[in-house]
């Protein structure tokens, strides 16, 4: 019976503890048939009424709490590496998008001018072709590779024109990945 009493919540535990401390202080040997015994009976009766009103609600056991903590730990162990992987994929996706944008701007410049630009910075200024047609700027600014990564991304995108063949490459290296367009 004491195990059931100590599993109760709130007022029920307080009432039981009050009963025990009162009984030990007033009657250290045990209950008697005197007025103190009737007080003890009243408190036990009050306790049982409160227990019935609250519907025998009980707290969580230690094993239930340990299971919840273990589940949270497992979820955290799964989520942390996935989060780190998301950051890496985002940096790679930014570099891919930037290299495609730069390649597109170089192609538009080459179509307008009839020759490849000598550097990526040529894309940020207006240009006049051989027919005296003005166009540009082909980009507002040359993007920079994403910050961070292991190994870190370079300070700028690499542009390599091959004027003889009319081809070019735009590349970036970082996070153990090399992106080359086209």
End-to-end distance, in Å? 80 Å
Please give the count of helices: 4
Ranges where pLDDT stays below 50 over 5 or more residues in a row are 1-9
Order of helices and strands: HHHHEEEEE
Tell me the strand order in the biggest sheet: 3-4-5
Instruction: Count every beta strand, where a strand is a DSSP E run of 2 or more residues.
Output: 5
Beta-strand percentage range: 5-15%
Q: Could you tell me the radius of gyration in angstroms?
A: 39 Å
Q: What is the general shape?
A: rod-shaped
Tally of domains: 2
Structural class: alpha+beta
Mean pLDDT: 80
Largest sheet: 3 strands, antiparallel
Helix content: 40-55%
General description of the model:
This protein has 182 residues and is of the alpha+beta class. It folds into two domains: 2-53, no CATH class; 63-181, no CATH class. It is 51% helix and 12% strand. It is built from four helices and five strands. The protein has helices spanning 2-7, 11-26, 35-53, 62-113, and strands at residues 127-128, 134-135, 158-162, 167-174, 177-181. A three-stranded antiparallel beta sheet has the order 3-4-5, covered by helices on one side. Strands 1-2 form a two-stranded antiparallel sheet. The longest helix has 52 residues, at 62-113. The protein is rod-shaped and about 115 Å long. The protein starts with a helix and ends with a strand.
